[in-house]
Protein backbone atom coordinates (compact mmCIF):
# COMPACT_ATOMS: atom_id res chain seq x y z
CA UNK A 1 0.00 0.00 0.00
CA UNK A 2 1.57 3.25 -1.04
CA UNK A 3 -0.90 5.86 0.23
CA UNK A 4 -3.68 5.25 2.72
CA UNK A 5 -5.83 8.04 4.09
CA UNK A 6 -8.07 7.26 7.07
CA UNK A 7 -10.86 9.45 8.45
CA UNK A 8 -9.11 12.66 7.54
CA UNK A 9 -10.53 15.93 8.87
CA UNK A 10 -9.19 19.41 8.16
CA UNK A 11 -10.94 22.69 8.95
CA UNK A 12 -10.04 26.28 8.10
CA UNK A 13 -11.73 28.98 10.18
CA UNK A 14 -14.05 26.36 11.68
CA UNK A 15 -15.24 25.26 8.20
CA UNK A 16 -14.48 21.60 7.57
CA UNK A 17 -12.85 21.53 4.13
CA UNK A 18 -12.08 17.82 4.45
CA UNK A 19 -14.64 15.92 6.51
CA UNK A 20 -13.93 12.28 7.33
CA UNK A 21 -12.31 11.28 4.04
CA UNK A 22 -10.74 7.82 3.59
CA UNK A 23 -9.18 6.18 0.52
CA UNK A 24 -6.27 4.00 -0.60
CA UNK A 25 -3.96 4.20 -3.60
CA UNK A 26 -1.84 1.17 -4.51
CA UNK A 27 1.61 1.18 -6.12
CA UNK A 28 1.31 1.66 -9.86
CA UNK A 29 -2.24 2.97 -9.54
CA UNK A 30 -3.56 6.43 -10.42
CA UNK A 31 -6.41 7.92 -8.43
CA UNK A 32 -8.15 11.03 -9.77
CA UNK A 33 -9.64 13.38 -7.18
CA UNK A 34 -12.34 15.49 -8.76
CA UNK A 35 -14.82 18.10 -7.63
CA UNK A 36 -15.77 21.73 -7.94
CA UNK A 37 -13.25 24.46 -7.25
CA UNK A 38 -12.97 24.89 -3.50
CA UNK A 39 -14.13 21.36 -2.71
CA UNK A 40 -10.88 20.51 -0.89
CA UNK A 41 -9.04 18.65 -3.68
CA UNK A 42 -5.73 20.52 -3.38
CA UNK A 43 -5.99 20.44 0.43
CA UNK A 44 -5.91 16.64 0.27
CA UNK A 45 -2.63 16.75 -1.68
CA UNK A 46 -1.10 19.24 0.77
CA UNK A 47 -2.13 16.97 3.66
CA UNK A 48 -0.60 13.88 2.01
CA UNK A 49 2.75 15.54 1.31
CA UNK A 50 2.89 17.13 4.76
CA UNK A 51 2.62 20.81 3.81
CA UNK A 52 -0.31 21.11 6.22
CA UNK A 53 -1.27 18.91 9.13
CA UNK A 54 -4.69 17.29 9.57
CA UNK A 55 -6.92 18.12 12.54
CA UNK A 56 -7.57 14.40 12.92
CA UNK A 57 -7.22 11.20 10.94
CA UNK A 58 -4.26 9.31 9.63
CA UNK A 59 -2.13 9.33 6.48
CA UNK A 60 -0.01 6.23 5.95
CA UNK A 61 2.53 6.22 3.14
CA UNK A 62 5.05 3.55 2.31
CA UNK A 63 8.70 4.41 2.88
CA UNK A 64 10.28 6.64 0.26
CA UNK A 65 9.73 10.04 -1.19
CA UNK A 66 6.49 11.77 -2.08
CA UNK A 67 6.80 14.11 -5.05
CA UNK A 68 4.38 16.83 -6.02
CA UNK A 69 3.75 18.60 -9.30
CA UNK A 70 2.25 21.99 -8.50
CA UNK A 71 -0.61 23.65 -10.34
CA UNK A 72 1.55 26.51 -11.63
CA UNK A 73 4.73 24.40 -11.81
CA UNK A 74 6.43 26.30 -8.92
CA UNK A 75 9.80 26.18 -10.67
CA UNK A 76 12.52 28.24 -8.98
CA UNK A 77 12.71 31.25 -11.26
CA UNK A 78 16.25 32.21 -10.21
CA UNK A 79 17.61 28.79 -11.26
CA UNK A 80 17.95 27.37 -14.75
CA UNK A 81 16.22 24.16 -15.83
CA UNK A 82 19.17 21.91 -14.93
CA UNK A 83 19.51 23.43 -11.44
CA UNK A 84 15.75 23.20 -10.92
CA UNK A 85 15.75 19.49 -11.69
CA UNK A 86 18.92 18.83 -9.69
CA UNK A 87 17.78 21.00 -6.76
CA UNK A 88 17.12 18.12 -4.36
CA UNK A 89 20.37 16.39 -5.39
CA UNK A 90 22.34 19.55 -4.60
CA UNK A 91 20.54 20.74 -1.50
CA UNK A 92 19.05 17.77 0.35
CA UNK A 93 21.19 16.63 3.28
CA UNK A 94 20.97 12.91 2.47
CA UNK A 95 21.61 13.40 -1.26
CA UNK A 96 24.10 16.28 -1.27
CA UNK A 97 27.25 14.22 -1.43
CA UNK A 98 25.77 11.13 -3.04
CA UNK A 99 26.37 12.05 -6.69
CA UNK A 100 29.24 13.68 -8.56
CA UNK A 101 28.53 16.68 -10.80
CA UNK A 102 28.85 14.45 -13.90
CA UNK A 103 26.36 11.97 -12.47
CA UNK A 104 23.93 14.79 -11.65
CA UNK A 105 24.29 16.10 -15.19
CA UNK A 106 23.45 12.64 -16.56
CA UNK A 107 20.45 12.29 -14.23
CA UNK A 108 19.13 15.70 -15.36
CA UNK A 109 19.49 14.74 -19.04
CA UNK A 110 17.80 11.39 -18.41
CA UNK A 111 14.84 12.91 -16.54
CA UNK A 112 14.42 15.62 -19.16
CA UNK A 113 14.39 12.95 -21.90
CA UNK A 114 11.72 11.09 -19.95
CA UNK A 115 9.41 14.10 -20.28
CA UNK A 116 10.32 14.63 -23.94
CA UNK A 117 12.66 17.59 -23.53
CA UNK A 118 16.31 17.99 -24.38
CA UNK A 119 18.82 20.82 -24.82
CA UNK A 120 16.98 23.24 -22.52
CA UNK A 121 19.20 22.73 -19.45
CA UNK A 122 20.52 26.29 -19.52
CA UNK A 123 17.18 28.00 -20.07
CA UNK A 124 15.35 29.76 -17.25
CA UNK A 125 11.67 29.01 -16.42
CA UNK A 126 10.56 32.40 -17.78
CA UNK A 127 11.91 31.38 -21.20
CA UNK A 128 9.67 28.27 -21.38
CA UNK A 129 6.02 27.83 -22.38
CA UNK A 130 3.46 26.76 -19.75
CA UNK A 131 3.46 23.17 -21.06
CA UNK A 132 7.25 22.96 -20.99
CA UNK A 133 7.34 24.37 -17.46
CA UNK A 134 4.91 21.63 -16.40
CA UNK A 135 7.12 18.96 -17.97
CA UNK A 136 10.22 20.37 -16.26
CA UNK A 137 8.34 20.24 -12.96
CA UNK A 138 7.55 16.56 -13.72
CA UNK A 139 11.27 15.94 -14.24
CA UNK A 140 12.09 17.75 -10.97
CA UNK A 141 9.47 15.68 -9.13
CA UNK A 142 10.82 12.30 -10.25
CA UNK A 143 14.51 13.09 -9.74
CA UNK A 144 14.49 11.47 -6.28
CA UNK A 145 12.75 8.31 -7.57
CA UNK A 146 9.59 8.85 -5.47
CA UNK A 147 7.15 6.12 -4.41
CA UNK A 148 4.19 8.46 -4.76
CA UNK A 149 3.54 11.34 -7.14
CA UNK A 150 0.87 13.97 -6.50
CA UNK A 151 -0.36 16.16 -9.37
CA UNK A 152 -2.25 19.35 -8.58
CA UNK A 153 -4.38 20.22 -11.63
CA UNK A 154 -1.60 19.28 -14.06
CA UNK A 155 -3.48 20.34 -17.19
CA UNK A 156 -5.08 23.56 -15.97
CA UNK A 157 -4.34 26.56 -18.16
CA UNK A 158 -2.98 24.46 -21.03
CA UNK A 159 -4.34 24.14 -24.57
CA UNK A 160 -6.00 20.78 -25.46
CA UNK A 161 -2.93 19.43 -27.30
CA UNK A 162 -0.53 20.33 -24.48
CA UNK A 163 -3.04 18.80 -22.05
CA UNK A 164 -3.00 15.54 -24.02
CA UNK A 165 0.80 15.56 -23.96
CA UNK A 166 0.85 16.10 -20.19
CA UNK A 167 -1.72 13.32 -19.70
CA UNK A 168 0.46 10.97 -21.75
CA UNK A 169 3.45 11.81 -19.53
CA UNK A 170 1.42 11.13 -16.37
CA UNK A 171 0.67 7.64 -17.74
CA UNK A 172 4.27 7.18 -18.87
CA UNK A 173 5.70 8.23 -15.51
CA UNK A 174 3.38 5.80 -13.74
CA UNK A 175 4.62 3.00 -15.99
CA UNK A 176 8.29 4.00 -15.60
CA UNK A 177 8.29 4.63 -11.84
CA UNK A 178 5.44 2.31 -10.77
CA UNK A 179 4.58 5.02 -8.26
CA UNK A 180 1.19 5.53 -6.65
CA UNK A 181 -0.25 8.68 -8.23
CA UNK A 182 -2.98 11.05 -7.14
CA UNK A 183 -4.20 13.49 -9.78
CA UNK A 184 -6.35 16.40 -8.70
CA UNK A 185 -8.27 17.66 -11.70
CA UNK A 186 -11.62 18.80 -12.98
CA UNK A 187 -10.90 18.07 -16.63
CA UNK A 188 -12.73 15.04 -18.01
CA UNK A 189 -9.98 14.21 -20.51
CA UNK A 190 -7.41 14.00 -17.68
CA UNK A 191 -9.73 11.73 -15.69
CA UNK A 192 -10.49 9.33 -18.53
CA UNK A 193 -6.96 9.21 -19.95
CA UNK A 194 -4.91 8.91 -16.74
CA UNK A 195 -6.98 7.51 -13.89
CA UNK A 196 -7.60 3.93 -12.79
CA UNK A 197 -10.06 5.06 -10.13
CA UNK A 198 -11.89 8.29 -9.33
CA UNK A 199 -13.18 9.83 -6.12
CA UNK A 200 -15.40 12.87 -6.17
CA UNK A 201 -15.49 15.40 -3.36
CA UNK A 202 -18.31 17.70 -2.40
CA UNK A 203 -18.63 19.68 0.81
CA UNK A 204 -15.55 17.93 2.20
CA UNK A 205 -16.91 14.41 1.74
CA UNK A 206 -16.50 11.68 -0.86
CA UNK A 207 -19.75 11.50 -2.83
CA UNK A 208 -18.57 9.06 -5.51
CA UNK A 209 -15.91 6.38 -5.80
CA UNK A 210 -15.43 4.19 -8.85
CA UNK A 211 -13.71 3.84 -12.20
CA UNK A 212 -13.77 6.53 -14.91
CA UNK A 213 -16.26 4.31 -16.82
CA UNK A 214 -18.53 4.19 -13.75
CA UNK A 215 -18.35 7.96 -13.61
CA UNK A 216 -19.40 8.32 -17.23
CA UNK A 217 -22.41 6.03 -16.70
CA UNK A 218 -23.92 8.94 -14.78
CA UNK A 219 -26.05 6.81 -12.44
CA UNK A 220 -24.90 8.98 -9.54
CA UNK A 221 -26.52 12.43 -9.23
CA UNK A 222 -23.22 14.08 -8.34
CA UNK A 223 -21.19 12.63 -11.22
CA UNK A 224 -24.09 13.23 -13.59
CA UNK A 225 -24.12 16.92 -12.71
CA UNK A 226 -20.31 17.10 -12.95
CA UNK A 227 -20.05 15.32 -16.31
CA UNK A 228 -22.92 17.35 -17.79
CA UNK A 229 -21.49 20.55 -16.27
CA UNK A 230 -25.02 21.33 -15.15
CA UNK A 231 -26.14 23.95 -12.65
CA UNK A 232 -29.05 21.67 -11.73
CA UNK A 233 -28.25 18.92 -9.25
CA UNK A 234 -27.29 18.18 -5.68
CA UNK A 235 -24.10 20.29 -5.80
CA UNK A 236 -24.67 23.98 -5.20
CA UNK A 237 -22.02 26.49 -6.19
CA UNK A 238 -21.11 29.10 -3.59
CA UNK A 239 -22.64 32.35 -4.77
CA UNK A 240 -21.88 34.61 -1.83
CA UNK B 1 -28.14 41.53 23.71
CA UNK B 2 -27.25 40.76 20.10
CA UNK B 3 -28.53 44.16 19.05
CA UNK B 4 -26.47 45.80 21.80
CA UNK B 5 -23.39 43.81 20.79
CA UNK B 6 -23.86 44.86 17.17
CA UNK B 7 -24.21 48.50 18.23
CA UNK B 8 -21.13 48.21 20.47
CA UNK B 9 -19.06 46.68 17.66
CA UNK B 10 -19.76 49.72 15.50
CA UNK B 11 -18.59 52.17 18.18
CA UNK B 12 -15.29 54.05 17.97
CA UNK B 13 -14.20 52.68 21.36
CA UNK B 14 -14.57 49.10 20.17
CA UNK B 15 -12.77 49.83 16.89
CA UNK B 16 -9.84 51.55 18.64
CA UNK B 17 -9.34 48.82 21.26
CA UNK B 18 -9.89 45.93 18.83
CA UNK B 19 -7.38 47.60 16.49
CA UNK B 20 -4.82 47.88 19.30
CA UNK B 21 -5.50 44.25 20.26
CA UNK B 22 -5.02 42.98 16.71
CA UNK B 23 -1.85 45.05 16.20
CA UNK B 24 -0.44 43.72 19.51
CA UNK B 25 -1.16 40.13 18.51
CA UNK B 26 0.49 40.73 15.13
CA UNK B 27 3.50 42.40 16.80
CA UNK B 28 4.17 39.50 19.19
CA UNK B 29 3.44 36.94 16.47
CA UNK B 30 6.03 38.57 14.15
CA UNK B 31 8.55 38.98 16.97
CA UNK B 32 8.15 35.31 17.92
CA UNK B 33 8.57 34.13 14.36
CA UNK B 34 11.69 36.26 13.79
CA UNK B 35 13.20 34.97 17.06
CA UNK B 36 12.49 31.33 16.20
CA UNK B 37 13.89 31.77 12.69
CA UNK B 38 16.99 33.44 14.16
CA UNK B 39 17.55 30.48 16.51
CA UNK B 40 17.08 28.05 13.60
CA UNK B 41 19.59 30.02 11.50
CA UNK B 42 22.16 29.82 14.33
CA UNK B 43 21.52 26.07 14.64
CA UNK B 44 21.95 25.56 10.90
CA UNK B 45 25.15 27.64 10.81
CA UNK B 46 26.70 25.60 13.63
CA UNK B 47 25.67 22.36 11.95
CA UNK B 48 27.83 23.48 9.01
CA UNK B 49 24.93 23.62 6.60
CA UNK B 50 26.20 26.49 4.47
CA UNK B 51 25.71 26.69 0.72
CA UNK B 52 28.96 28.43 -0.31
CA UNK B 53 27.85 29.22 -3.86
CA UNK B 54 24.70 30.93 -2.63
CA UNK B 55 26.65 32.67 0.17
CA UNK B 56 29.07 34.20 -2.34
CA UNK B 57 26.17 35.35 -4.53
CA UNK B 58 24.41 36.93 -1.55
CA UNK B 59 27.66 38.60 -0.36
CA UNK B 60 28.05 40.15 -3.79
CA UNK B 61 24.46 41.35 -3.69
CA UNK B 62 24.65 42.64 -0.10
CA UNK B 63 28.06 44.26 -0.21
CA UNK B 64 29.04 45.09 -3.77
CA UNK B 65 25.71 45.91 -5.43
CA UNK B 66 24.64 48.13 -2.55
CA UNK B 67 27.92 50.08 -2.34
CA UNK B 68 27.13 52.97 -4.73
CA UNK B 69 23.88 53.86 -2.97
CA UNK B 70 25.39 53.39 0.52
CA UNK B 71 28.41 55.58 -0.25
CA UNK B 72 26.15 58.22 -1.81
CA UNK B 73 23.80 58.39 1.18
CA UNK B 74 26.56 58.52 3.82
CA UNK B 75 28.58 60.94 1.69
CA UNK B 76 25.62 63.29 1.12
CA UNK B 77 24.64 63.18 4.81
CA UNK B 78 28.19 64.14 5.68
CA UNK B 79 28.09 67.01 3.15
CA UNK B 80 24.79 68.27 4.62
CA UNK B 81 26.07 68.19 8.22
CA UNK B 82 29.56 69.60 7.58
CA UNK B 83 28.29 72.39 5.32
CA UNK B 84 26.11 73.64 8.18
CA UNK B 85 28.55 73.02 11.03
CA UNK B 86 31.98 73.92 9.61
CA UNK B 87 31.25 77.58 8.82
CA UNK B 88 29.66 78.22 12.23
CA UNK B 89 32.47 76.50 14.13
CA UNK B 90 35.14 78.42 12.26
CA UNK B 91 33.29 81.69 13.04
CA UNK B 92 33.15 80.78 16.74
CA UNK B 93 36.85 79.89 16.81
CA UNK B 94 36.30 76.15 16.88
CA UNK B 95 37.72 75.41 13.43
CA UNK B 96 40.24 73.00 14.93
CA UNK B 97 37.44 70.78 16.16
CA UNK B 98 35.45 70.37 12.93
CA UNK B 99 37.36 67.24 11.91
CA UNK B 100 37.00 65.80 15.41
CA UNK B 101 33.24 66.41 15.44
CA UNK B 102 32.73 64.95 11.98
CA UNK B 103 34.83 61.85 12.65
CA UNK B 104 33.03 61.09 15.91
CA UNK B 105 29.67 61.67 14.26
CA UNK B 106 30.39 59.53 11.22
CA UNK B 107 32.40 56.69 12.75
CA UNK B 108 30.17 56.27 15.80
CA UNK B 109 26.75 56.93 14.27
CA UNK B 110 26.15 58.21 10.76
CA UNK B 111 28.29 55.66 8.94
CA UNK B 112 26.54 52.63 10.38
CA UNK B 113 22.98 53.92 10.76
CA UNK B 114 22.78 55.61 7.34
CA UNK B 115 24.36 52.54 5.69
CA UNK B 116 21.77 50.45 7.52
CA UNK B 117 18.94 52.59 6.15
CA UNK B 118 20.39 52.35 2.63
CA UNK B 119 20.79 48.57 2.88
CA UNK B 120 17.21 48.16 4.18
CA UNK B 121 15.81 50.21 1.31
CA UNK B 122 17.81 48.44 -1.36
CA UNK B 123 18.65 44.91 -0.18
CA UNK B 124 16.20 44.21 2.68
CA UNK B 125 13.16 45.16 0.63
CA UNK B 126 14.44 43.11 -2.30
CA UNK B 127 15.04 40.04 -0.08
CA UNK B 128 11.57 40.32 1.47
CA UNK B 129 9.79 40.67 -1.87
CA UNK B 130 11.85 37.87 -3.44
CA UNK B 131 11.01 35.39 -0.67
CA UNK B 132 7.39 36.57 -0.46
CA UNK B 133 7.03 35.96 -4.21
CA UNK B 134 8.50 32.47 -3.71
CA UNK B 135 5.90 31.91 -1.00
CA UNK B 136 2.86 33.02 -3.02
CA UNK B 137 3.99 31.11 -6.13
CA UNK B 138 4.39 27.87 -4.09
CA UNK B 139 8.18 27.76 -4.61
CA UNK B 140 8.72 27.47 -0.84
CA UNK B 141 6.17 24.62 -0.73
CA UNK B 142 8.19 22.97 -3.53
CA UNK B 143 11.38 23.33 -1.45
CA UNK B 144 9.63 21.63 1.49
CA UNK B 145 8.21 18.81 -0.64
CA UNK B 146 11.71 18.18 -2.01
CA UNK B 147 12.79 17.77 1.65
CA UNK B 148 15.18 20.71 1.64
CA UNK B 149 15.06 22.90 4.78
CA UNK B 150 13.85 26.38 3.65
CA UNK B 151 15.65 28.09 6.55
CA UNK B 152 18.97 26.54 5.50
CA UNK B 153 18.50 27.28 1.81
CA UNK B 154 16.93 30.74 2.02
CA UNK B 155 17.88 32.30 5.36
CA UNK B 156 21.40 31.10 6.18
CA UNK B 157 23.25 32.55 3.14
CA UNK B 158 21.37 35.84 3.39
CA UNK B 159 21.86 36.34 7.13
CA UNK B 160 25.52 35.29 6.95
CA UNK B 161 26.16 37.57 3.97
CA UNK B 162 24.64 40.46 5.93
CA UNK B 163 26.90 39.78 8.91
CA UNK B 164 30.00 39.41 6.74
CA UNK B 165 29.48 42.30 4.33
CA UNK B 166 27.86 44.99 6.46
CA UNK B 167 31.10 45.79 8.42
CA UNK B 168 33.00 46.25 5.12
CA UNK B 169 30.23 48.47 3.76
CA UNK B 170 30.27 50.57 6.94
CA UNK B 171 34.10 50.93 6.90
CA UNK B 172 34.04 52.16 3.31
CA UNK B 173 31.00 54.36 3.85
CA UNK B 174 32.51 55.92 7.00
CA UNK B 175 35.83 56.61 5.26
CA UNK B 176 33.95 58.15 2.34
CA UNK B 177 31.82 60.18 4.76
CA UNK B 178 34.87 61.62 6.57
CA UNK B 179 36.47 62.45 3.22
CA UNK B 180 33.27 64.13 2.02
CA UNK B 181 33.21 66.11 5.30
CA UNK B 182 36.80 67.29 4.74
CA UNK B 183 36.10 68.41 1.17
CA UNK B 184 32.89 70.22 2.20
CA UNK B 185 34.59 71.93 5.19
CA UNK B 186 37.35 73.14 2.88
CA UNK B 187 34.90 74.41 0.27
CA UNK B 188 32.42 76.07 2.64
CA UNK B 189 34.69 77.32 5.46
CA UNK B 190 38.18 77.35 3.92
CA UNK B 191 39.24 75.01 6.70
CA UNK B 192 42.01 73.18 4.87
CA UNK B 193 42.54 69.43 4.77
CA UNK B 194 45.47 69.49 7.21
CA UNK B 195 43.44 71.23 9.94
CA UNK B 196 40.48 68.86 9.36
CA UNK B 197 42.44 65.62 9.49
CA UNK B 198 44.71 66.74 12.38
CA UNK B 199 41.67 66.97 14.62
CA UNK B 200 39.79 64.12 12.92
CA UNK B 201 42.33 61.57 14.19
CA UNK B 202 41.90 62.86 17.74
CA UNK B 203 38.23 61.86 17.76
CA UNK B 204 38.68 58.26 16.67
CA UNK B 205 39.58 55.58 19.20
CA UNK B 206 39.92 51.84 18.71
CA UNK B 207 36.82 51.44 20.87
CA UNK B 208 34.80 53.54 18.39
CA UNK B 209 35.93 51.43 15.46
CA UNK B 210 35.30 48.13 17.30
CA UNK B 211 31.83 49.19 18.45
CA UNK B 212 30.98 50.44 14.95
CA UNK B 213 32.04 47.15 13.37
CA UNK B 214 30.21 45.04 15.97
CA UNK B 215 27.12 47.17 15.53
CA UNK B 216 27.22 46.90 11.74
CA UNK B 217 27.60 43.12 12.01
CA UNK B 218 24.41 43.05 14.10
CA UNK B 219 22.67 45.43 11.68
CA UNK B 220 23.54 43.24 8.68
CA UNK B 221 22.34 40.04 10.34
CA UNK B 222 19.14 41.52 11.73
CA UNK B 223 18.18 43.29 8.48
CA UNK B 224 18.55 40.01 6.54
CA UNK B 225 16.75 37.98 9.23
CA UNK B 226 13.78 40.36 9.45
CA UNK B 227 13.53 40.71 5.66
CA UNK B 228 13.62 36.94 5.12
CA UNK B 229 11.12 36.29 7.92
CA UNK B 230 8.61 38.88 6.72
CA UNK B 231 8.82 37.48 3.17
CA UNK B 232 8.61 33.88 4.39
CA UNK B 233 5.24 34.37 6.09
CA UNK B 234 3.65 36.35 3.25
CA UNK B 235 0.21 35.24 2.15
CA UNK B 236 -2.17 36.08 -0.67
CA UNK B 237 -0.99 37.36 -4.02
CA UNK B 238 0.62 40.61 -5.12
CA UNK B 239 -0.97 42.43 -2.16
CA UNK B 240 0.64 39.97 0.24
CA UNK B 241 4.05 40.53 -1.35
CA UNK B 242 3.64 44.31 -0.98
CA UNK B 243 2.55 44.01 2.64
CA UNK B 244 5.46 41.70 3.48
CA UNK B 245 7.93 44.12 1.91
CA UNK B 246 6.50 47.11 3.79
CA UNK B 247 6.56 45.14 7.03
CA UNK B 248 10.18 44.11 6.47
CA UNK B 249 11.26 47.72 5.85
CA UNK B 250 9.38 49.13 8.87
CA UNK B 251 10.55 46.38 11.24
CA UNK B 252 14.16 46.64 10.02
CA UNK B 253 14.20 50.45 10.44
CA UNK B 254 12.83 50.22 13.99
CA UNK B 255 15.10 47.27 14.87
CA UNK B 256 18.35 48.96 13.86
CA UNK B 257 17.43 52.17 15.70
CA UNK B 258 16.71 50.12 18.84
CA UNK B 259 19.99 48.18 18.44
CA UNK B 260 21.83 51.47 17.91
CA UNK B 261 20.31 52.87 21.09
CA UNK B 262 21.28 49.75 23.05
CA UNK B 263 24.89 50.03 21.78
CA UNK B 264 25.00 53.73 22.71
CA UNK B 265 23.70 52.95 26.21
CA UNK B 266 26.17 50.09 26.74
CA UNK B 267 29.31 51.68 25.31
CA UNK B 268 28.96 55.47 25.50
CA UNK B 269 26.78 56.32 28.52
- Estimated structural class of chain B: mainly alpha
Quaternary: heterodimer
Mean pLDDT of chain B comes to: 92
Mean pLDDT of chain A: 87
Summarize the structure.
The complex is a heterodimer of chains A (240) and B (269). Chain A is an alpha/beta fold. Chain A has helices at residues 41-48, 81-85, 87-91, 101-114, 130-141, 160-177, 188-194, 212-217, 221-227, and strands spanning 3-12, 15-25, 30-35, 56-61, 66-69, 148-152, 180-184, 197-202, 205-210.
What this model shows, in words?
The complex is a heterodimer of chains A (240) and B (269). Chain A is of the alpha/beta class. Chain A has two domains: 1-64 and 147-210, P-loop containing nucleotide triphosphate hydrolases (Rossmann fold, 3-Layer(aba) Sandwich), CATH 3.40.50.300; 77-144, no CATH class. Chain A has nine helices and nine strands. Chain A has helices at 41-48, 81-85, 87-91, 101-114, 130-141, 160-177, 188-194, 212-217, 221-227; strands spanning 3-12, 15-25, 30-35, 56-61, 66-69, 148-152, 180-184, 197-202, 205-210. In chain A, the strands form two sheets. A six-stranded mixed β-sheet of chain A has the order 5-6-7-3-8-9, sandwiched between helices. In chain A, a hairpin with a 2-residue loop joins strand 8 (197-202) and strand 9. Chain B has 269 residues and is mainly alpha-helical. Chain B has one domain (36-268). Chain B is globular. The N and C termini of chain B lie far apart (57 Å). Classes of the chains: A alpha/beta (240), B mainly alpha (269). Chains A and B meet through strand 5 and helix 3 of A and helix 6 of B.
Main attributes?
heterodimer, A: 240 residues, alpha/beta, Rossmann fold, 2 domains, 6-stranded mixed sheet, globular, B: 269 residues, mainly alpha, 87% helix, 0% strand
